[in-house]
Amino acid sequence: MAHAIKFHPGMSLLEQHAEGSLSADVALAVAAHIDLCPHCQQLSRDITADLACQLTQQPVKTNTTDWQHMLNDIMAQPQLSKQAAATQAQLSAQAAEPIIVNQREFVVPRALQRLAANHGKWLHLGGIATAKLPAGNDYHVSLLYISKDTEVPQHTHLGLEMTLVLAGKIVDENGEYKAGDLLINSPDDTHTPRTMADEDCLCLSVLSAPLKFKKGLTRLLNPLQQFFY
Amino acid sequence: MLKSINVPRHDRVPSLIPDTQASMTRQEIANNNWEEALTFVALQRDRSAYAELFSYFAPRLKAFGMKMFGNEQQALEMVQDTMLNVWKKAALFDASRGCASTWIFTIARNVRFDMLRKKQSRKDDVSADDLWLNGEYPEQEADTDASQWDTQLLMEKLAPHFASLPPAQREVMERVYLQEKSHQEVSDELAIPLGTVKSRIRLALDRLREALDGARN
Hints:
By secondary structure, chain A is an alpha+beta fold. Chain A is built from six helices and twelve strands.
């Protein structure tokens, strides 16, 4: 990563992620960020070690379970060779197929590779294109491609919006976001993300509710909000 | 030749769970030797080493599962799946990359995550293998940010925030920064691995940094 990632998930998101208690869609955005961010990789490693230590230190009730039976069941099963176990573990991490949109190729982070390989059809609207990923019930997860010099109309969020920049750059009223930066917008935030003239952008978008467009004629887009959701 | 060892033999499994008198030794193992035990399981299919591991971790995993699922049936399903993976995939454990307890914890977490997803019966959905890298990210340089903190500054500016740290991290921080103990001393006193002491310090520093500048989301 040539630049330093500036926008990270907060500690509590990282902790919930390591614990495995985030909803799958939010966890996906966090996992993809971690793939791109050495700083959060280190934090996640530390949090995981801490949680594991808590696991071993918790008090244990006196035995009411038939452990011997379970132990016998388990040891009756064959062990896997290192190679077999590794193959099984790495099935999901096979060679990454690039994502192609607008005649551009993008390689997505490891966490997204399997799902991105099964993305839905690209839907185009002006300089913007979206494709759904087959993930989750509560949130809508999609890839969002924004061509050079394109503005996403100003909008607020009816729910939580997470945007992870996967490649390129976008800017909004609050700053500039590059690959690895994770933006989290709550229902109160209003912003107008755009790309610059020299660089397009691919994002992962996780939404818990449709966007709501604010300004003048773009309010007419509200019937089109399904496009972004 | 080796293959014959693989054949499941219900009749041959001896009763290996140690009685409670062995618990002191087990406590010693807990702090030092689970990595060794797991390595024996991987290299020599060592049943008694596995039984030791099992009798230590299974009840703890069950308690963890009870907290997470709130019912015994699913908690035990999680224990069984987790410990089965530990048995089958022991060869994947690499002691140079971390504690046995961390490895086992991540397996349990992934098993639990996939159990919850399966209940919602979606094919093609997010799986634990997507979310958590199996193995390690490349090792980073030492965290320069953390070592840049001047201890004096830390005392003055950050001490007020100590109270808001999670208890486990605060305990370590107080011993290291207020009582000026070495990481090893703290590890010994609290009976936690040295790596965990270092982890908790890094986590606490990051939390304190967050409390000061709020740069993160």
